[in-house]
């Protein structure tokens, strides 16, 4: 196995096609962590991504691929080691005052509503906390009631004096979403927003996010390992593997005609999958401190193992001589795969 020990590479050659000058963008984004022994974990390693108002983008991939780190960098919670995050075309500044203004427009929705809510605070106080911190003007009670109603808790006044332990899991997640909506954001970043919920209420929360997109023009980045969820909710999907986006495009295209071998493996296990047979990936995702050279998926790639890459003459590039970058596949999608680029899939 060849190991890429070079410094982090320059930003990817091209942004994914179909991207727009959205409210929230990343360009050539890298996030690395220094570890004992002089090692560096390259959690995010050259990512371009856009999230525009009025669209839902799903960021999908296995655990450990860098999804949450990328989300945190987009929120300004992690400072990138290279590349830029922009909001409405302006680079994100990491001064306290600038970050405070930014976070009023780009809000986080956490995975675990129970952990996100203070058990000693009423629903009213939980939703009002953000507007108080940001010193939003106007009638606080009206703002809280409007946010709770938008989140589907009606009549809002019924919930004002309730405590988290008195609510169901779905209601607690709606309170967390209401806390974000109280600041009237342009974008929300939701990290596994239904992972901790019962199956019976997951659909309700997903329907809520779709309604907020359609009625309020809210944009959302939904971080998930569940492509079935992405299929239900996303306008666009970005599939991430070991710190890089390997396929990106409209949800219906990516999920009905996956091109990258990793995406095909993920889609193959979905119900009614367009991939004829389930693809079982061998091994685990490599350590982010020991990233393979060439295509970082090559150690697990079913196309390389089957000999398809060798027949196309790209197996050497896959194994170590060239890092694949996102290249236009159609007008609005991109794939980072040597074999796909060769036209021999």
From TrEMBL:
> Which PROSITE patterns has this protein been placed in?
ABC_TRANSPORTER_1, ABC_TRANSPORTER_2
InterPro entries, alphabetically?
A: AAA+_ATPase (IPR003593), ABC_transp_ATP-bind (IPR050319), ABC_transporter-like_ATP-bd (IPR003439), ABC_transporter-like_CS (IPR017871), Oligopep_ABC_C (IPR013563), P-loop_NTPase (IPR027417)
Is the keyword Ribosomal protein in the record?
Answer: no
* CDD domains referenced in this protein's UniProt entry, alphabetically: ABC_NikE_OppD_transporters
Report domain ABC transporter positions: 26-267
* Pfam family membership, one: oligo_HPY
The molecular function GO annotations come to: ATP binding
SUPFAM superfamilies given in the database record: P-loop containing nucleoside triphosphate hydrolases (SSF52540)
Keyword DNA repair listed? The answer is no
Any idea which UniProt keywords this protein has? ATP-binding, Nucleotide-binding, Transport
Q: Which family does it belong to?
A: Belongs to the ABC transporter superfamily.
- The name on file for this protein is ABC transporter ATP-binding protein
Q: Which organism is it from?
A: Salininema proteolyticum
């Amino acid at each position: 196995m060849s190991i890429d020990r070079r410094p982090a590479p320059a930003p990817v050659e091209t942004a994914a096609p179909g991207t727009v000058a959205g409210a929230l963008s990343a360009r050539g984004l890298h996030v690395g962590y220094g570890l004992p022994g002089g090692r560096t974990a390259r959690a995010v390693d050259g990512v371009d991504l856009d999230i525009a108002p009025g669209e839902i983008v799903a960021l999908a991939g296995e655990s450990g691929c860098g999804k949450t780190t990328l989300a945190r960098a987009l929120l300004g919670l992690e400072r990138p080691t290279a590349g830029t995050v922009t909001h409405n075309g302006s680079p994100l500044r990491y001064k306290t005052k600038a970050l405070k203004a930014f976070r009023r427009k780009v809000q986080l929705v956490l995975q675990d509503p129970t952990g996100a809510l203070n058990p000693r605070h009423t629903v009213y106080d939980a939703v009002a906390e953000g507007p108080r911190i940001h010193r939003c003007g106007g009638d606080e009670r009206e703002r809280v009631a409007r946010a709770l109603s938008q989140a589907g808790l009606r009549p809002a006044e019924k919930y004002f004096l309730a405590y988290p332990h008195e609510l169901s899991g779905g209601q607690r997640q709606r309170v967390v979403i209401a806390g974000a909506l109280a600041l009237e954001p342009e974008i929300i970043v939701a990290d596994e927003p239904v992972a901790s919920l019962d199956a019976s209420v997951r659909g309700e929360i997903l329907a809520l996010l779709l309604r907020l997109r359609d009625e309020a023009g809210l944009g959302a980045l939904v971080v998930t390992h569940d492509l079935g969820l992405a299929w239900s909710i996303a306008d666009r999907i970005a599939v991430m593997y070991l710190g890089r986006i390997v396929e990106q495009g409209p949800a219906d295209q990516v999920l009905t005609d996956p091109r990258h071998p990793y995406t095909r493996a993920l889609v193959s296990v979905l119900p009614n999958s367009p991939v004829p047979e389930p693809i079982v990936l061998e091994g685990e995702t490599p350590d982010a401190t020991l990233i393979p050279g060439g295509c970082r998926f090559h150690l697990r790639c079913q196309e390389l193992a089957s000999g398809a890459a060798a027949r196309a003459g790209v197996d050497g590039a896959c194994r170590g001589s060239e890092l694949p970058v996102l290249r236009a596949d159609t007008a609005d999608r991109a794939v980072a795969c040597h074999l796909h680029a060769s036209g021999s899939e």
